[in-house]
């Protein structure tokens, strides 16, 4: 490419030009036949420029398509789950500011809440073992369970007589999804139950790259959360039934410390709440 000089009369010619060489007569005849401008004049340069322009437009259009996110396909809701609630008292050992006077309060709270959530998970699994082991709810080598925490609330306090010992009351709303081999095969092995995850509706609508291309929403009885839901990723290829390879037949998923107030409420008791709580018979 080289730049042309300005033409006499003050008009600017094309800034760039390219020279094409061809040796066969057929190409020469083809160009002369095609090189007709709208005003009837012949111009091989004009014809070649139109070809380059068209190719450039096609390339830009293809790049636009590649850069656009692939829409997320939503499948019918998964309704084959059972809702249950677990509530009661909980005790756990956490960090005490007596032993960590220089640690920030937020750091202490975060670590204590992590220990608290683990204790609540243990309580939920204990409840499942006691209430879902009979009456047709058996889990054997041909089935596994997903316990999905959809809402957790807990009020807790530090028991002063034992530094680092905390006590509280909690409520956890959960959904039980039992996946048998028949259930797995019914969906063709494409529902990835092991990777159930919470996704914001906005992220689904924008079809962000980290969002699976296929999603099956888990139906919930209470829809207090208007910002997102729990989804089962829908795979494009069939996955082998994982029942016999799982380390545990029951997996607990769902709400963790990253969730907002619609799904999680962890609060320390105020003095009046703490007083009433510690006056209960189990703490006398």
Essential attributes:
284 residues, alpha/beta, five-stranded mixed β-sheet, four-stranded mixed β-sheet, 11 strands, elongated
How can the largest sheet be summarized? Answer: 5 strands, mixed
Low-confidence stretches: 1-12
SS class: alpha/beta
SSE succession: EEHHEEHEEHEHEEEEH
Give the N-to-C terminal Cα separation.
Answer: 92 Å
| Rg, nearest Å | 33 Å
Q: Overall pLDDT, averaged?
A: 81
Walkthrough of the structure:
The protein has six helices and eleven strands. Strands 4, 5, 6, 10 and 11 form a five-stranded mixed beta sheet that branches. Strands 3-8-9-7 form a four-stranded mixed beta sheet. It has a two-stranded antiparallel sheet with strand order 1-2. With 284 residues, it is α/β, with parallel strands linked by helices. The radius of gyration is 33 Å and the shape is elongated. 17% of the residues are buried.
Helix/strand layout:
Layout: E1 2-3, E2 16-17, H1 25-34, H2 44-67, E3 73-78, E4 82-93, H3 105-131, E5 143-158, E6 165-180, H4 181-186, E7 197-200, H5 201-206, E8 214-218, E9 228-233, E10 250-254, E11 264-268, H6 271-278
Parallel strand pairs: 3-8, 5-10, 5-11
Antiparallel strand pairs: 1-2, 4-6, 5-6, 7-9, 8-9
Short description:
The protein is α/β, with parallel strands linked by helices and 284 residues long. It is built from 6 helices and 11 strands.
